[in-house]
UniProtKB/TrEMBL annotation:
Catalyzes the attachment of glutamate to tRNA(Glu) in a two-step reaction: glutamate is first activated by ATP to form Glu-AMP and then transferred to the acceptor end of tRNA(Glu). This is Glutamate--tRNA ligase. ATP binds at K242. The keyword ATP-binding applies. It comes from Roseivivax halodurans JCM 10272. It catalyses: tRNA(Glu) + L-glutamate + ATP = L-glutamyl-tRNA(Glu) + AMP + diphosphate. Monomer. Residues 5-306 form the Glutamyl/glutaminyl-tRNA synthetase class Ib catalytic domain. Residues 325-464 form the Aminoacyl-tRNA synthetase class I anticodon-binding domain. InterPro entries: aa-tRNA-synth_I_cd-bd, aa-tRNA-synth_I_codon-bd_sub2, aa-tRNA-synth_I_CS, aa_tRNA-synth_I_cd-bd_sf, Glu-tRNA-ligase_bac/mito, Glu/Gln-tRNA-synth, Glu/Gln-tRNA-synth_Ib_cat-dom, GluQ/Sye.
Length: 469
């Protein structure tokens, strides 16, 4: 019987949810959900000085926006401190750990001497094999008794076998002198107790894995499958930082990328399925596997993100897109849509979706149906409404009064009028856009007429013809 897949995402709540962390969460979610397994969430809040509730809330909000639901309650690592200490004491009892009474000054002196002699500065405690009866009644830490010889092999599903000589590993501290457990111990105990089968995380944790495996072996626990994924770099190939642009996930929502597009782009960032760039959630769940993750760092590419985002906007169902827009407006601190605006946006969605790369672009195209009446033309639109153009618009309105309100009929009426004036329809398009939307870049004038309806279209054209717009 095969074991159910259990993955976890375990961020530290010391700041915003980094885009790299969001991708790690997505990979874990896809791997578990695609196999009918569990995706767990653990907040690694053992650093009490730097952990904040605001950061935890931001992480939960980011995951919710990205659509990554987790199973069970959110686990607080700090809440398990007594369980972590219990495991350290069990290792001490079994001889896999020891009490170390060395002071900070003694440890520093050892390292200085080792450095001067060109030896490894990994601390070798004189208390490692000391008999209990020689122990003083003094503050002490509990250290792992790491193997001194041989090798530790991390069988990594992304990086391949990674071999580390055991003489490169130190006897790491498990419990501090005040009895509190360290992060390295807490991670292993939590992963074991939560039944995690696959640890998918950034490759900055690769060195930690060798040390953490010593704890698994000392406790006789099964070692989960490890998959250390390369970090995300900026377009210049350097580690992603604020100079490259947005690094926090919430910034991408505020910039107006839809969650579906963001999921697609992040999944494709460092993982591939043939040449597929655009794919649905269902396809990602079916296709995603650790074997498709590359060994080299992925590069953030805003052009690709824009392209994929635009494809998802075009493919989205209108009602789902309206929800995305409402969430975007809230995240960006912009005014919510009124009921009339929502209705108008839904009517217009068919002619807005195709070329918008982001939600703000879509909303800009939707200005004609969202703006308050009367429409105020911007500077470019104002120039398009010269006296000659206004005269032509005043001639068009009576012809639209009795036209059947279909695209073919509207096009025919406009084309006839253009021919009467010896011009091509293209010359009329600018003034029509200006009159209907107050902008020069809009959807097709006929789409706008169909969305606005006869009464509103004619009212706007008449206002523009009178020079009131």
């Amino acid at each position: 019987m095969t074991q159910d897949v259990v993955t976890r995402f375990a961020p530290s709540p010391t700041g915003f949810l980094h885009i790299g962390g969001a991708r790690t969460a997505l990979f874990n979610w896809l791997y578990a959900r695609g196999r009918g397994g569990k995706f767990l969430l653990r907040i690694e809040d053992t650093d009490r000085a730097r952990s904040t509730q605001e950061a935890t809330d931001a992480i939960l909000k980011g995951l919710a926006w990205l659509g990554l639901d987790h199973d069970g309650d959110v686990v607080s690592q700090a809440a398990g401190a007594e369980r972590h200490a219990e495991v350290a004491r069990a290792m001490l009892e079994a001889g896999h750990a020891y009490k170390c009474f060395s002071t900070q000054e003694e440890i520093e002196a050892f390292r200085e001497e080792a450095k001067a002699a060109g030896r490894s500065t990994n601390f070798r405690s004189p208390w490692r094999d000391a008999a209990p009866e020689t122990h003083p009644d003094a503050p002490h830490v509990i250290r792992l008794k790491a193997p001194l010889e041989g090798e530790t092999v991390i069988e990594d599903a992304v990086q391949g076998d990674v071999t580390i000589r055991n003489d490169q590993l130190d006897d790491m501290v498990l419990l501090r002198s005040d009895g509190t457990p360290v992060y390295m111990l807490a991670v292993v105990v939590d992963d074991h107790d939560m039944g995690v089968t696959h640890v998918i995380r950034g490759d900055d944790h690769l060195n930690n894995a060798a040390r953490q495996m010593q704890i698994y072996r000392a406790m006789g626990w099964p070692v989960p499958v490890h998959a250390h994924i390369p970090l995300i770099h900026g377009p210049d190939g350097k580690k992603l930082s604020k100079r490259h642009g947005a690094v926090g996930l919430e910034e991408y929502q505020v910039m107006g990328y839809p969650a579906t597009g963001m999921r697609n782009y992040l999944a494709r960032l460092g993982w591939s399925h043939g040449d597929d760039e655009f794919f649905t959630d269902a396809q990602a769940l079916e296709w995603f596997d650790i074997t498709g993750i590359g060994k080299s760092p992925a590069r953030l590419d805003f052009k690709k993100l824009d392209n994929i985002s635009g494809q998802h906007i075009a493919a989205a169902k209108d009602a789902a897109l309206l929800q995305e827009i409402e969430a975007f407006l809230a995240a960006a601190g912009r005014n919510p849509l009124s009921a009339d605006q929502s209705d108008g946006l839904l009517r217009a969605m068919y002619c807005l979706k195709d070329r918008a790369k982001t939600l703000p672009e879509l909303l800009e195209k939707a200005h004609f149906v969202l703006a308050d009446n009367p429409i105020e033309p911007d500077e470019k639109a104002q120039k398009a409404l010269d006296p000659v153009s206004r005269g032509i618009l005043s001639e068009l309105t009576p012809q639209l009064q009795n036209a059947s309100w279909t695209r073919d009929e509207l096009e025919a009426a406009a084309t006839r009028l253009a021919e009467t004036h010896g011009i091509k329809f293209g010359k009329m398009a600018g003034p029509l856009r200006a009159a209907l939307a107050g902008r020069t870049v809009t959807p097709s004038v006929f789409d706008m007429m169909l969305v606005l309806g006869r009464e509103e279209t004619i009212a706007r054209l008449e206002r523009a013809a009178r020079g009131e717009g």
